[in-house]
Amino acid sequence: MNFFGDNAVCVTGGAGFLGSHIVEKLKARGCSRIFVPRSRDYDLRERGAIRRMFADAQPDVIIHAAAVVGGIGANQRNPGRYLYDNAMMGLQLMDEAKDRGIHKFIQIGTVCAYPKFTPVPFLGEDLWNGFPEETNAPYGVAKKLLLLQSQAHRTQYGFNSIYLLPVNLYGPGDNFDLQDSHVIPALIRKCLEAFRRGERHITVWGTGAAMREFLHVDDYAAAVLLATELYEKPEPVNIGSGAAISIRDLVLIARITGFTGEVIWDRTKPDGQPRRCLDVSRVEKEFGFRAHTSLEEGIRETVDWYSRSHLQDVVGSMRA
């Protein structure tokens, strides 16, 4: 049996950063019936639009990768939107999938759902032991609500839904808009533009002391497909590299881009959650996933992609 060849798969957010990588891997696995709903055609906050999507897609499997998300600044500017949009999309989509007898539902969660002061490494059992870090709380709570729904639907209706928790993702195709990007694409863009202009410093939010774990988007997309095919349990699954790095140590990006100037830390801006690093023992045990892309290798690839796609006039080789 070829799981992906035998099932029609709908990937919400399939034209976005994570979703597009999932779609490419589905194609590589022989999935010929892939449906990618676009927001201009299906507003997933509306029940009627969700029903039209199901009628058009006729899916066996839903991978819900659509999200309204951004970095710390975007979270601070949009708490109401991030709470409402993410909750409404997920709650209605999962409930409609349950009513239609969808074979399997994969909910993409977020590391932002964990409490602010979760002991490192984060365990799935820690999710309910406190409130998320304030700048990420509306988004994190909305996503955590979908975990509760997933488990409740499995208990009451026997609905086959799983919940996957990624760390911070990065890679080619990421969002490099400085108004709402995450830290790696923001640093890449700042360093490349400073290098191109001959500027001698860049400014970065916070103190640099916060610890983060990062995972290449291709690795995470591969994990999503493994879980879709093999995982059948209610417990949330952490998916990450298992290694953390301080934001200050991410200055390796500066070396990769060629930027050699000063990094100025704006301490008036928040650090976000102090430490993030996941316990990844469950994902290894349940479906044998391990990250393959080193952080430096992945950042180098992302720098090259961004310089080719957006900065054709950058002087010098990004591989120097």
Q: Which descriptors apply to this entry?
A:
single chain; 320 residues; alpha/beta; Rossmann fold; 6-stranded parallel beta sheet; 11 helices; 11 strands; 14% strand; globular; disordered C terminus
Summarize this, please?
This protein is α/β, with parallel strands linked by helices and 320 residues long. It is built from 11 helices and 11 strands.
Model description:
With 320 residues, this protein is α/β, with parallel strands linked by helices. The chain has a domain at 3-169 and 216-239: 3-Layer(aba) Sandwich (Rossmann fold), CATH 3.40.50.720. The protein is 42% helix and 14% strand. The protein has helices at 3-6, 17-28, 47-57, 72-77, 79-99, 137-157, 183-197, 217-230, 252-257, 281-287, 295-310, and strands spanning 9-12, 34-35, 61-64, 104-108, 161-166, 168-170, 201-205, 211-216, 237-239, 244-246, 262-266. The strands form three sheets. A six-stranded parallel beta sheet has the order 2-1-3-4-5-9, sandwiched between helices. Helix 5 (79-99) packs parallel to helix 6 and helix 7 crosses helix 11 (295-310). The chain is globular, with a radius of gyration of 20 Å. The model is unreliable at 313-320 (pLDDT under 50).
